[in-house]
User: Fold this.
Amino acid sequence: MKPCKHLIIAILSLAMSHMALAENTTLDRVSVQINEGIVLESEITNMVKTVKANATAAGQSLPSDQALRTQVIERLIMTRLQMQMADRIGLHIGDLQLDQTIGNIAKEQKLTVEQMKTKISSEGMSWGQYREQLREEITLGEIQRIQVQRRIQVSPQEINNLVTMIKEQGLKQIEFQIGHILIEIPNNPTSEQLEKASKRANTVLERVQDGGDFRRTAIAASAGPKALEGGIWDYMNINEMPTLFAEVLSDAKKDDIIGPIRSGAGFHIIKVIDARGLQTKEVDEVRSRHILVKPSPILSEERAKAMLDKFVKQIRAGDADFSALARQYSEDPGSATKGGELGWADPTVYVPAFSQVLKELKVNEISEPFRSSHGWHIVQLEERRTTDATDKFNTNKAHQLIFRRKFNEELQAWLDEMRAEAYIEVFEADFNRG
Assistant:
């Protein structure tokens, strides 16, 4: 039986239309393989567009497209490695925790969630995209805390030494904003590799000393953790910044350029972008107590929150005692045996969600249940006071400064270890295709 002439024509027409469509459509492709995962070309393209848009808005110049692409690929690789680790340990951010975080962000911006949706839309991002981007950011923060925090030990002796040093020398009333470029060297480098990296570091140093744009140079040349941000680290007191920075910045001034400094990671070039006095010599402290309930495979997010909702109602009605509930149910080993008491502390020592709630509470007020990176909490603000940081240096603050320094150092070590152990293959783009 011969096929119908009209059917043959229809089939041929359909095939030709698909061919024409294929010629005019750039198909997505796998650009990087990372262990069992992949990065698509579209992800790289979208991130490059975002970086360019942000740079344009900030009036910041950028290096060549190829240099920018290299940095974007590196950022996506490190992000994917961390997300894979989160998957392996079963770390997933549920919608309830995500909604809580969005509510906190809206409060900080003095917006309602609906107003926030409108703002996000006006910036060219869908609400769904924003939620998933935020979910990834929370996941990265939590996996870093889980994996890095256990590598850090802050001894009482270290705290006492820092407090003693500050009493003898006075608190360094300066915060530095640092620019950092790292010219990387491989593990166990050959003399040829060392010489090549050293020459490159000196070339980069000459460029920035001659007035070259530091941020643009960092994006193009740095292998440091802040490369895609132009190498810029936020303001840090000398006691909390990474040891490498602290050792060379004690007497530095704005616009000083230091380096190259050799370390196990490579050659470092450091620029003091800005230096400022600490914003205040007084520290606002709070005394509070809390109950922490951690979600688990057995206890869902919803049930954990409902449990604390019940506690709040019982305490406010006078049917239950806060301290007794904390001793029985709180999963914070440091405070549960003390009835949830956290003692006096600078609220900035706590994670952002916890600190934000304390900021909004009145004395003796008990919060509604809220989610932090540790789990679900209720907290009661018991007292507030202001202390003079120049006369009395809080041991909690000393712990915080030491912890931040060690966290930054250990985070980079953990990321380097993950990358060294991973299977990574970058498939170079054929820019001449088509």
